[in-house]
Amino acid sequence: MNQRLALIPARGGSKRLPRKNILPFMGKPMVLWTCEAARDSGCFNTVVVSTEDKEIADIVRTAGFSVDERPEELGSDMASCADVCLEFLARSEKAGTFYDALCCLYATAPLRTADDICAVMKLLTSGTDAVHAVSGYDHPPHQMLYQNAEGFLVPAFPLLVTRKSQEVPEGLIGNGSTYAITVTALRKYRSFYPSRIKGYRMPALRSIDIDTAEDFTFLEACAHLLKQEGLTRDI
Asked: Does the predicted TM-score (pTM) go above 0.85?
């Protein structure tokens, strides 16, 4: 693979935690942590922030990074990240730039490092269509319960719910930070979930993804802990 793109989606209209992509975090707007990690990884021909928001665009450009002003119809919470990436690729190809691989890096996971990104991109060359940064579930996923319309709890996996944890393979989940995929697979499946996916395991302390004010409080606590232990960059 020769041409690699890092695309950082950063909408302005987040609802649960307003303006989350540019919240001040440890001395700089949130989005810039991901921009810097992508740049410092040295893995990409292009690093670009996709946004419809002028304030986000101004912050990113002032810091020296590229911005793509996404179409207005892709600025709502109804547009998927895959839609944003596919539309950007289509415009790039019309302009004569073709990419072999794309890495979607979420701005709300600022503790993910350049080394994490490098590890994900290296795995993408190991005979797979996609790589997700993952972490383990805090609780056995096969014991998950849903509340039905009558208010009763029902097992999500009734055939497994009574099994001991050691009898069920460990559950993993994408940690909301880093998703790499070949452009061929992205076009075929139109999602980041093709038939062949490998996982890059990240520690829980670096796997914080921000959606709520409580998440942000937890993020700050983890960042201070990592700084004390010397396990993260320039925090």
From this structure: yes
